[in-house]
Structures are given as C-alpha cells and as structure tokens.
Amino acid sequence: MEISLSPEILFTIGSFPVTNSFFWSVILSLFLIGLTLLVRTRMKKIPGVLQNIVEMFLEGAYGFVQSVIGSEKKAKKVFPLVFTMFIFTLFANLATYIPGQAAVDIKTAGGVIPLFRAVMADYSLVFMMTIISVLTTQIIAIIVHGPFGYIGKFINLGGIKDLFKEILKGKFKPALLAQGFLDLFLGIMDVIGELAKVISLSFRLFGNMFAGEVLSAVMLFLFPFFAPLPFMFLGLLTAVVQAFVFSVLTLIFITMASEIEEDKLAEEATI
C-alpha cells in the first residue's frame, strides 16, 4: 500500500498535467451540470417527487443563508456562490466512498496508479476554492467600505494623526502615542487574520478528507471485511460536516465584510 500526499499524473495535455484528482473533479462537475440541466428541463407546475425534494432543499438552504446574512437582497447575490461550494464539496466528498473506485488502476509511465482520487484530498484544488472564498470576501469589503476605508482597516493612522495635532498645539499626550502604536499593531493583526483565513479554511477541509482517505485505505488493507465499516461511516459524517463548515464559514466571512458600512452608519447615527 502506497500513500501519496500529492495526486498522481495520469497523462499530460501539452504541458498541462492531468492528475487523478483533477480527472475525478471534471467527471463530478459534468455530472452535477447534467443533473442540474435535467432537473431544470423537467420542472413542472405540479411537481413530482424529485422536484419536491429539490425545491425543499433549495428553499431550506436559501432560508438558512438569508437568516445568517440578514437581508434578502444580499442573500440573492451570495446564495449561488455559497450553495455551489456546498454542493460541489459535498458530492466530491461523498464520491470518495463509491464502492470499487479504489480498485480501478491505470498503467502510466510512472507505474500503475489509481484512476480516481478524492478530490478534496488534493490541496491545490482546495487552495483555489479557498482563494475564491477569501478574494470574494475582500472584494465585497472594498465595495461596501470603499478602497480607502478598506485600506484604513489595516493601516489605521488615526491615533498618530491626533498625536501630531496635539504636538502642533504645544501639547504631548503619551496616551495618544500608545493609541497610535496600538492601532498600527491591530492593523497588522488584521492582515495576519485575513491570511490565516486561507490556511484555516484550506487545511481544515484538506486535512480531514485526506486523513479520512488514508484511514479508510489503511483499515481496508489491514482488515478488509467488517472492521473498516465504523471508520467509513465516520468518514461519511465528516464528508457532510466539512462541506457544511466550508460553505458556512465562507458565508460568515462575506456577512462580516458586508456589514462594515452598516456598522459605521449605526455609529454615526448614535453620534
């Protein structure tokens, strides 16, 4: 049994390497697109069983997003991104447990490698999803708060400015100096916090799914019959939970970014 942290390359298209995790993600994407088009073309005024299930699921998910973000207008804009991330991550995680896929191998120049690999056990894909999530959050913060207001969150010179004003008046207040350095320090901590989002989001999803894949493979190798079943059920639970956590954290980050201007207006109204 061989465990590889990086996905194996199946073949190359020009200089572009096609890995087994990328190959599996393309198949899942085509499946989800086809399923969406199938449901879309079979929509009826009097819904059937499948349409009822889909509508209930969509309404529940949309209601949850709206309850978190607190605005129907915002929910309509955010819901497609958050829900797409949830569905893709959920199906990608659950597809890992399709029976028999681990036995499908392909012979390449580098030897015999598995044709399929857990999509979320490929850190490059998880990293790109995280970058999309974090960049979307930053763009929303810039739109809501303005470019200068956004930069001011990380470079707050208000305390230093007040200190110089007092010095020009012939006064020196140590408290303003301390406040200025504190504002700069908090700005640096905000930058670190934004960078930490990338690490926390990506490592959480990747670590759990890769660990689940390795644990299942080890248990199947050592005890190929009934012993792996509890670990597989735990892996299925983790697959659902991690898809939910990733999408909900994205929703929370977007909600916090979109509330910056509202908080500022509330403070101005109280003044």
What does this structure look like?
The protein is mainly alpha-helical and 271 residues long. The chain has one domain. Helix content is 73%, strand content 6%. Helix 2 packs across helix 3, helix 3 packs antiparallel against helix 8 and helix 6 packs antiparallel against helix 7. The C terminus is likely disordered.
Features:
271 residues, mainly alpha, two-stranded antiparallel ribbon, two-stranded antiparallel sheet, 9 helices, 4 strands, globular
| Oligomer type | single chain
The DSSP helix count reads 9
Q: How does the helix and strand content classify structurally?
A: mainly alpha
What is the first-to-last residue Cα distance? 67 Å
Query: How many structural domains are formed by the residues?
Result: 1
- Form type: globular
| Mean pLDDT metric | 79
Strand order of the largest sheet: 1-2
**Fraction in helix:** over 70%
Question: Which consecutive residue ranges, at least 5 long each, have pLDDT under 50?
Answer: 265-271
Give the structure's gist in a few sentences.
The chain has 271 residues and is mostly helical. It has helices at residues 20-41, 49-69, 72-94, 123-145, 147-154, 158-168, 174-222, 229-258, 260-270; strands spanning 9-13, 16-19, 105-108, 111-114. The chain has one domain (9-270).
Ordered list of secondary-structure elements with their pairings:
Blueprint: E1 9-13, E2 16-19, H1 20-41, H2 49-69, H3 72-94, E3 105-108, E4 111-114, H4 123-145, H5 147-154, H6 158-168, H7 174-222, H8 229-258, H9 260-270
Helix pairs in contact: 2-3, 3-8, 4-5, 4-7, 4-8, 6-7, 7-8
